[in-house]
Amino acid sequence: MSQAMLHEQTGVTASYISFIENGKANPTLDVMAQLADAIGWNVSEMLAAEA
Length: 51
What we know:
Elements: H1 3-10, H2 14-21, H3 29-39, H4 43-50
Helix pairs in contact: 1-2
């Protein structure tokens, strides 16, 4: 899913999503929940994917 599509579904700006992807930002739990919901995952799956 593109950053633009995530933005449309969540309202989180594409630039902030980019910062998260590149390790330059630490999203809040609420933002993580929004992003996880948009991609059909839950927050624990997102965290495990980074481990």
